[in-house]
Amino acid sequence: MRKKILILAVLLSISITALMASGCTTVSEEAISFADKAAENALIALNNGDYENYKKDLDDKMLEAVPEEEFIKFSSYLNNTIGKYEAGSKKISGSTIQNGMIVIIYGADYTGEANKVTVTMVISEPDEGNYKISGSWFDSPILRESSYQ
Length: 149
Known about the structure:
Blueprint: H1 2-21, H2 29-48, H3 51-55, H4 60-65, H5 68-81, E1 91-98, E2 101-110, E3 113-127, E4 130-139, H6 141-145
Antiparallel strand pairs: 1-2, 2-3, 3-4
Helix pairs in contact: 2-5
């Protein structure tokens, strides 16, 4: 299982690097502003196991992919593996647009991880004027050594 997670993390890193290097369209300040607020809300909600706040910025596909039971399981996994997100610590390390999706990568501090945790948020283009979170991924040395089941 650890090998699968490591392989997925490496593939995700390669994919994101390729996206960043491909010279895609610049992300608007409006999209970055939404992503910053939505990411902060989601990270704090994960700290607290607060599904109601977590789900408010998700698109329909994410809501379907992350029901409350899965959210609670993943929240516990993160808290037990890398500790809690240190509110306000995330900093953008890159952003791009690919295939109509906005990809924003953050470095964030967690209480149980000495290194920055890479948090990747995928944001859908506005639907009826509203951006939504379409995906999120977490990567760090400790996460690569653990297994999420």
